[in-house]
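Marked as duplicate of an earlier ticket. Keeping the data here for the record.
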Amino acid sequence: MESRRYPKSVPPPTSPTQAVPTTRPVLGDAPQVAGESARQEHDRRRTKRLARDRDHYGQLLGTVVSQLNTPSHETAWATGAGGEEKLAECLAKACGPDVILFHDRRFPGRRANVDHLAVTPRGVWVIDTKRYRGDVHVERKLLRPPKLTIAGRDQTKLVDGVRRQADHVAELLGVDVTAALCFVDADLPLGGLGSAGDVQLLSPRRLAKQLRRSGPVSAETRADLATKIDAGLPGARH
């Protein structure tokens, strides 16, 4: 499993004689609402469009026009929020108590957010949910970086985007971070997609399986990492 590499590594597991917490850490009061940022952006765009149409056409006609002409860039935010909610529900059911999950966390001072973070026995994962229709394919050529296509369109920018998120989280935590794109409702090859460079490309089921895998990161270390994430990456409503 490839991950983003940084000078500091995940601390070694505790020895058998050390006491480790048996429950998840007590975190702050940041809400765990998957898709919250996307919902907020959808509502902002919709409110702005409705007000503009009412001003231009009048109250009644403007409402009718708005209902008939919802732009795709607006509905895309609602679609994305639904994908994040669906994945969060899947992971909550499948991962078990050894995996600590965070949803929709913001980078302070930036508009960007992280859809999901998972603190697992194998380290920290940054997960970006994508909800596209159509075939997902990775084109690999010698001496060229992998090219991600969805429904025949070049979407390699998605790989670059989640990689940047992983970089920021790794800098915050001082540990290695694995970056992943999780495709909800897309048409994926039966054998899976594998990876695009150091970014994992997974279905929800395969992602949950990876997160559940045993590893060297102790429960105590996972609790410490979770506390750092909770303090350094606020929830969307904060």
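See parent ticket for discussion. The helical segments are 36-57, 59-68, 72-94, 156-173, 204-212, 219-232.
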